[in-house]
Structures are given as structure tokens and as C-alpha cells.
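Researcher: Here's the sequence for the chain we discussed earlier.
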Amino acid sequence: MRQSGAGVVEFARKSRLVYKHDERHYVSRTGWLRAAVLGANDGIISVSSLVVGVAAAAVDSREIMIAGLAGLVAGAMSMAAGEYVSVSSQSDLEKADLAREQRELIETPEAELQELTDLYIDRGLRADLAQTVAQQLTAHDALGTHAREELGISEITTAQPLQAALASGAAFSCGAFFPLLWAMVLPANIFAPVSSALSLVLLGILGAIAARAGGASALKPALRVMFWGAAAMGFTALIGSFFGTVVG
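Model: Thanks. This is the structure I predict for it:
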């Protein structure tokens, strides 16, 4: 029995709903997530270490606040500028590679088609099928195909300098805010140990959240960032205590 045209359309619509391929991928977050996590971690560790080191030198709360605020401003600008320059360099390399690939597609199209065919053969396709796939993808979008398959460049992983700079600078400022807050509310005689403990807890939470946002398990990243934060604060406290004793 043949279905009516409307019935076929309805069946196709339901089939698409049943077989809809719904997966969550996190690679599109790579650019801003890496910069944001790095910025927030650096903000907490750098400014916490700075204020703990200054506090260990036996100075008053006002000097701790000034040091922390200077660390926040300088660190945020440094992180933003560093990310922008670094990711801009990556972007320049990507653009240069794409320009070179575009030139090769114009000057030696047969060699580029064979190169693409060989890539698909190496990945497991039969030679005839690999050639067919390479021809069809070249006809559809030659540069985009070679960018993905040969250079590993795609839209979701393309370097974005401004996005990385803003994410890193803003995240650093947010992370650095908490050590400054603790410097304002904690008494000077307990500031160093309590501030260090609170910073480590915050680092662990941040590490866990960043790991979950990237689709990974939370425990190992949290412990890793807490370890390095404790090491940084411990060294700066020792240095501050040493120089505070010598100067005193």
C-alpha cells in the first residue's frame, strides 16, 4: 500500500526526530575556556601569593591592600596583553598557512587533489573511494577541506586574539578580587594562614568547574591547581618572612 505525499513527509519528519544525532562537544570552548581558566588561576595564585608574602613581612593592612591592588591591575593587563600577542601570533601563522595553501590550490591543483586522496587512504578508505571523496570535497570547498584535513584548522578552533585577551584579563581580575576582599576583612594576625586556606579552596573549586565545563572529571584538575597554588604561596611567604626579619 502506497503512502500519500503528506504521509511520506510526516514519516520523514518523525524519522529525523528519532534518529537525531544529539551530542555535546566541548572543543568549541577551547579558545576562551583556556584563557579564562589560566587568567582566573593566575589571578588567585599571583595576588594571593603576593599579599601573603607581603603579610609575612609584618607590614600593616593598608600596605597589603596596596600591594594586592597593584598586583591585580598589573596582572590583568599583563595577562590580556600576553594572550593577545600570543594568540595573534598563532592567528598570523594560520593565515599564512591558508594563503600558502590557496596559492598551491591555484598553481598545482592536481598535486593537491592527490595529496588529499592520499590522506584519506592513510585514514582507511579504499583508493577509489578516497579519490571520489577528495574530488567531491574539493569541488565543494577546496581551501576549507585542505585547512581541516591537512593543516588541522577549522572554524571552531581558529585563533581569536581579542576574545582570548578579554577572557584572560577579566578572569584574572575576578580571581584576584578575592584575595583583596580577604585582605579587607581578615585581621592582620591571622591573615596569612586563613587567606592561604581560602585561596586553596577557591582554586580547587575553580579547577573542578573548569574541568566539568570542558567535559572532564573534576578531582585531578582540582588537586593539581591546589598543589601549585600551595607551592606558590608557600615560597612567597618564606621570602616575605625572610626579608621582613632581615629588614626588621
